[in-house]
Amino acid sequence: MCRSKNLNTQMSETRVHEVRKEETTDNSSTEPEEDELFIGEITTTTAKNVLITNLKVNGKNVNLKIDTGAQCNVLPEEIFDGIKQKPQLIATGTKLTAYGGAQVPVKGKCVLEIEQTADRKTEVEFFVVKAPNAKALIGLQTCQNLELISINQISEIQEKKADIIEDYKDVFTGLGLVEGEYHIELQENAKATIQPPRKVPLSLIPKLKET
After folding, report:
1. Checking DSSP bridges between strand 106-117 and strand 137-138, what pairing results, if any?
2. Is residue 44 within 8 Å of residue 18, measured between CB atoms?
3. Distance set, CA 142 to CA 76, 96, 177 (Å)
4. What confidence tens digit (pLDDT) does each residue in 104-155 have?
5. SS3 115
6. 3-state class of 98 per DSSP?
7. What residues contact residue 152 under an 8 Å CB cut-off, 6+ apart?
8. β-strand 137-138 against 60-66: which pairing, if any?
9. 31: how many CB neighbours lie within 10 A of its CB?
10. 208 φ/ψ angles, rounded to the nearest 5 degrees
């Protein structure tokens, strides 16, 4: 009888240990993951094709670059510090990637009020960054929300894969080769870049409106 009692006690202790171990594993798997957003070029505003709008951000006039390729809104630390009534920055693990793959240091994020007119004010999330010569910019989603840009209806033509292969047999048969030879010269120390897909490139919007 005593031996059986000791055995039951050992089994109970083992079960409790196993349950606690599983709970610890489950908790660790719920830790938030870091996000990565693309913001393009944040230092150049003198190019001819750059669009700038002046809006009040928490009461301060700020020149904001309209960047339809950016996935978020960016505010340099110098401009943020110049805002009188500014909120406290919230720590974030989000990484911002600029053109060329460079990582932009993020100080934190906050929600600021953009005033277009006296009766039109919108709360917008900004990432505050610390980078040399950084410029303030607003991304595609915010530009659409503020109605700074508009995208007309785009018609999509859907074709079945089999129909395309049948119509262009010569393209999908054998190994494709370009006639002749071509010499490609690469810039020394060039950095590879990657651009996220845009709904409509900014340069094509005027042509799109004409259709």
Report:
1. unpaired
2. no
3. 17, 17, 44
4. 999 999 999 999 998 999 999 999 999 888 899 999 999 999 999 887 766 6
5. strand
6. strand
7. 208, 209
8. parallel
9. 6
10. -65, -35
Pair type for strands 106-117 and 51-57: antiparallel
Tally: H helices and E strands in the chain: 5, 9
Q: Which two tokens stand for residue 97?
A: 């990637």
Distance of alpha carbon 116 from alpha carbon 146, whole angstroms: 8
Pairing of strands 120-129, 137-138: unpaired
> Model confidence over 47-72: pLDDT tens digits?
667 889 999 999 999 999 999 889 99
**Whole-structure pTM over 0.90, yes or no?**
no
- Token look-up 């897909």 returns 197
146 touches 122 (CB < 8 A): yes
**Residue among 47, 23, 39 at smallest CA distance from 76:** 39
Q: Alpha-carbon distance 140 to 75, whole Å?
A: 15
Give the per-residue SS3 of 20-89: HHHHHHHHHCCCCCCCEEEEECCCCCCCCCCEEEEEEECCEEEEEEECCCCCCCEEEHHHHHCCCCCCCC
Q: For the chain, what is the radius of gyration of the CA atoms?
A: 27
Amino acid at 195: Q
Q: Which sign does the torsion angle of CA 20, 21, 26, 32 carry? A: positive
For the chain, list the domains and their CATH numbers: 55-146 (2.40.70.10)
Q: Report the SS3 class of residue 135.
A: coil
Reading the block at residue 1, the tokens are 């009888």
